[in-house]
Model the fold of this input.
Amino acid sequence: MNDFVNNIKKVMLVFLILFIALISYITYLYMFKSETAVASSYNQRLWAERNKVLRGTIYDKDMTALTKSTRISQTSQKLQYYQGAAFAHTIGYMDPRYGLSGLEKKYDAELMDDGDSSLSKFAFFSKDNEEKVGKGLRTTLDSELQKKAYNLLGNHRGSIVAMNPKTGEILAMVSKPSYDPNYLSRDWKSVNSNKDMPLLNRAVSGLYPPGSTFKTITAASALKNIPNVYNSSINDNGSLVVNGTRLLGDFQGESFGNIGFKSAYMHSSNVFFGSLGLDLGNKELKNTAEAFYFNKHTPTIGLTIENSVFPSYKSNEKGNIAQSAIGQAGVLVTPMEMALVASTVANDGIMMQPMLVKEILSSKGKSLEKLQPKQLGQVMTKENATTMKSLMRSVVSGGTGKGAALSNILVSGKTGTADHVEASKQEAPHAWFTGFAPYDDPQIAIAVIVEEGGQGGQLAATITRELIRTYLK
Amino acid sequence: MESLKEERKLLRYTYLLCIVLFLNMYFIGKDSFDNGALIMGAVICLIFAYSHFIIRRFFPDGDKYILLFSNVLAVIGLGMLYRLNSPNALKQLIMYAIGIAIFILVVVLFPSLIKFGKYKYFYMICTIILMALGSLLAKPTYGARNWISIAGFTFQPSEFAKLSLVAYLAAALQNYGRDTQGKSEIIKAKALIEPGIVVMVSLGFMVIQKDLGSALLFFAISITMVYIATSNFKYVLLCLGLFIIGGFISYKLYGHVRVRFMTWSDPWKYATSGGNQVVQSLISIASGHLFGTGVGLGYPKLVPVVDSDFIFAAICEEMGLLMGFAMLILYFLLFYRCMRVPVYSKDNFTRLLAVGYSTMIAAQVLVIVGGVVGAIPLTGITLPLVSYGGSSMIITFFSLGILQKISEDGQSYE
Amino acid sequence: MANISLIMRFAIIAIIYIIIIFALKIMYKDIKGGAKQKPIIRKSMGLEVMERGENFNLRVGAVIPLNDELTIGRKGDNLLILGDQYVSSQHARIYLKNTDYILQDLRSTNGTLKNNKKVNDKVGIKKGDEIKIGTSTFKVIG
Done:
C-alpha cells in the first residue's frame, strides 16, 4: 500500500515538473520572443487599431489640407492625397498592403491617436458611436513653392530642398521621379520595378558627389584653419601637380593664372581648392565637414536623413585629398545636407535643425503642441560666415552663378558640376546649385540637383532663380 | 466543519469571478448594455452553486475541491466563449449543465465501483468498437478522420473510447501485483501482453485516423497506469522506447506526421501555410502581455479555431498571461485533488481507474497548451472544461464524476 | 465604453489569484495534516449490553468495542457470538464507513431492529441508538 502511495507521489512529481516546464517555456517565450511576435508583419492588430480611428489630416504651413481620409468600413479607410506626386515623398502613404512611409510613418502614432485620454473613456453611460479622428499635423511646407519646384524639375531626375535658414523649416522638398500615392495599388508593380527608383526620396536618401558646391565647406575650413588665407593666391595653370603626378585639373581645361581666394571661389578654380585641400590635410577638412554634420546623424523633426560621407584618407593619398576638397573622390552628400550648408552660411554660421512639422493639432483643429526651431550649433564664426556670404554673392553677381541672378533680389550661391561614374560609364555630370536670398536678412536657402544636368551654372541655377522669384514675390 | 468555511470562501470567490467577468461583458456589449451577459452569469452561478450544494448535502464524504476547481475553470471558459461567440457560448452552457448533471448522476446512481472491475472484456470490446466506428463512419474534419454525425450532433467516438480504455486497463492490471508476487520476470512480462496489445491496437487506430493528440494522450495514460500497477520503472522505459520507435515509423510512413513536425520546428517559416495557427496564437499571446488587453479589447478572433483548440491563446490575449498561468496552476491543483483519491481507496481497480482518469485530464492540458504555444507539435485536442465542445465537456465531467464517486467510497476524508 | 475592460482586467486577475492562494493554503494544510492523520479516525464507540435475553455469555453493562468491523451471529467465527435460537448464523455486521458506523442486516431470518424499527439491509447508527438482535438489546455508546 505504501508502495502505491509512493508511486502516486512520483507520478505527481513528474506532472508537477511538466507543468512547471510548460510555465517556464511560456515565460521564456514572453520575455524573449514576444516583441518580435508583436512586430511581425503577420500581426494584423496594429492595422486594426490604426483603422479604428479616422486618420488625422496633414496640412501645409498655411493650414491647407494636403490629405483627406474617409471611412470605408468599420475596419478600413481610404486616404486621399490632394497634391499627388509632388508631395508624395514628404507626406508618404499608409496602406495595409504596402506599409507606411514619409510623415504618415514618422507621425503614425499621432495620426491614429484621437487623443481621448479623458476619464469619459471609463464612464458607464457614454456611447461610443462618434467617429474618432486622429490628431492633425501642420507641416512647414509651402504648397505653392513645392508645386513650383516639382514642375521646374520637368522631366529630369533630381531633387530640390528649400528651407528657412533662420528656423530650419523646410519650405519645399521634392524628389523626382515620383509616383502618385493615390494610385498605389494600380502602380505598385511598375513603380517598384522602375530602375529610376521613384520610391526613393532623393532629398534625404539620395547620395551624390557634391562637386564644386563642396568648395563652400573647403573655404570655411580654410578660413578657420589657415591664417590669412583670404589674401592668399596661387598660380593656376590648369592642373594641380604634386611630385610629378597630376592630381586634378580645372573644368574643361581652363586655367586662371594668378588667382586669389575670392576669385578662385567665384570662378570655381579646382586647382586652388585642390591645393587648399592639400594644405589643410584630410583631418582638418574632415573636422569641418563633420561640424556640418557629415558622417553623423542629423537630428530632425519629421525626417530621416541619410548621413553624408566625408572619407578619411591617409596623408600620402594626395590625389584623393585634393579631389575631396573639390567635392569628388569619395565625398557624397544628400541634397538636404547642401541646403543646410547654404542655410548655415546665410544664418551667420548657425545651423538650424531641419524641421518638417511645426505644429500638432487636435482632431478639431486646436493646437496641441508647437514645435520649436532648434539650433544644432555654431558651425562657423559669424565673421567667417559673413565672409562666405559675400563670396557666395559674388558667385552670382560676377562668377559662375550668373544664371541665378534676379533684377530686384540679391541672390547668393555656389554652382557645382559633379562628375560621376555610373556602372563604370562616364555620364554627364550632375548639375548642382546651392544658395540663399535675399542677401540682407535671408529668407530662403535652396539646394538643387539635376541628375546628369550638365553644368551647374545653367539648369540648376535657373531653377533656383525661379524658385526664389516665386517665394519672394 | 472548518473545511466548510474554507469551501464557502472559495465558492464565494468563484461567484465573484463569475459576476465580475460577466459584468465586464455586460458593459462592453455591442450597441448598448448586454443583458444576455448578466443572465448568463446568473445562470452559471446558479448551476455551480446548486452542484456544490447537492454534493455537500448528500455526499459529504467525498472530495469537495474537485468540483470547486472544475467550476472555476468552467466559468473562465464560459466567459471567454461568450465574448468570442455568444450562440456557441449558449450551447456550451447547456453542455456544462448536462455535464454537471452527469457528474451528479454518476455519484448518485452508480453503485460501488468496485464491482465494475469484473467487466474487463466488456471494456475491451467497447474500446475496439468505438475506435473502429471512428474509422468506418467518419468524415474528415480539420484534418482528422474521426468525427461522426448523428442526429445533427457531431462527436468523436475516440473520445469515448478513452473512457473505456482506461476502464479496461484498470480491470486488466488490478491484480498484477497479487498475481505476479515473487514470480519470475517472464511471467510478469506475460501478464502485460494482453493489455499491451489492446493499447497498441488503439494507438494504431488513432494514428490512422490522424488523431495524433489522442494517441499521445493514450500513451501517457497507459504508461502511468502500468507504472502504478507494476511499480517497475523498466516497463516505463520500455514503453518510451516503443513510443519513439512507433513515432519514428509513423513519421516515415505518414505525410501528415512529417508536416506536423516540420511546422512545429519553425512555425514562422510556414506562417502562411501550416504554421499559420501557431504563429497567430503566439502573436495573440504576446499581444496580451501580463495583464491582457482587457476583455473585448484584443483581437483573439484573428487566431483560427479560437473557440476550441486555441481558446488558451484568446484567454492569454485578453485576460493576460497571468491568467494563463493561473489556469495551469488550477489544472494542476485539480490533478492533485484527483490523484489524492486513489490514495484513500481500498481497491486496486478503483485506484487504477482513478489514476487513469486523473492522468487523462492533466495530460490533455499539457498536450494542448504545449501545442498552442509551440512547445510541442500541435494536435487537435481540446482544453478540458474550457474549450468549446460538447463531447469534451461530457467526458470530462463523467471522469470527474467517477473520481468523485471513488472518493466517496474511499475511507475517511476531511 | 469597452474601455471599462481596462480596469476590470486587474480585478479578474486579482480574484483568480486569491482563489489560487486560498486553494494552496488549503492543500498545504491538507498535506501537513495528512501525514499525521491515519485514514481511520478512531472514534471510540462501542455496544453496551442492555438486556442479555437468552444469550448467557453476555453480561449486562459489558461494552463490546466497535473497531473496523463487528460481525454478529450464531456461528463461531463471528466476533460477537449470540447463541439464542432467534439469531441466524451470520446475522448482522457493524462496520466503519468513513466516519460513521453502519449496521448491516445479513438477511437474517428474524431481522435486526434499530430503535424498534426493522433494519432493511444497511442503516447508520449513532450514539444512543438501541439495537435488538434476537433476544438481546444493545445500546450504542461512544
User: Anything to note?
Assistant: The helical segments of chain C are 4-36. Confidence is low (pLDDT under 50) at residues 36-40 of chain C. The two ends of chain C are 64 Å apart (CA to CA). Residues 4-36 of chain C form the longest helix (33 residues).
